[in-house]
Amino acid sequence: QVDLMEVGGGSVQAGGSLTLSCQAAGVSYSTYCMGWFRQAPGKQHEGVAVIDSDGNTRYANSVEGRFTISQDNAKNTLSLQMNSLKPEDTGTYYCAGDTTKDLCARQVLGITGFYYGMDFWGKGALVTISS
To answer: Which of 11, 49, 104, 109 is deepest in the core (most CB within 10 A)?
Structure first.
C-alpha cells in the first residue's frame, strides 16, 4: 500500500511562488511514474507535470518554464516548484504515482478531463492565486 501526502499549499498573489511537496510512504518500486495533477474549481482534473524513475520530466504547455517537478529518492519526496503564478493556476493539486514508468511518456498533460489513471493518489493541497 502506497500512501501519498501533499504539503505546502496556500495562498499567494499573482507573480508569486509556492512549493508543493509530496511525501510517499510504503514505496518499494524501482521503476515508476510520478506526477502532479490539479483540479480548478468546477472543472475536472488535468495533468500538470510528470517525472519517471530515470528523472525524465514532461510539463503541460501552460506551466512549461514556470513549474519544476523534482524528486528526492532518498527521502521518497516529490516536489513541484511553482513560479510566476497566475490566477488560472488556482486549484487543488494532487500528487499521483504509478508503477508503470512508461506512463510518464504517454500521460496526457494540460487537457482538462483527459488523462490516464494513476495507481496512487494523494488527498490534495489547495493553491489559491489572487490577482
So the answer is: 49
**For residues 29-46, b (16+ Cβ closer than 10 Å) or e, as one string?**
eeebbbbbbbbeeeeebb
Question: Dihedral of CA 21/34/67/114: which sign?
Answer: negative
Q: Are 107 and 54 in contact (CB under 8 A)?
A: no
Q: Give the angle 93-94-95 at the CA atoms, nearest 5°.
A: 130
Query: For residue range 106-129, what is the model confidence (pLDDT) as tens digits?
Result: 999 999 999 999 999 999 999 999
Residues 58-89 pLDDT 10s: 999 999 999 999 999 888 999 999 999 999 99
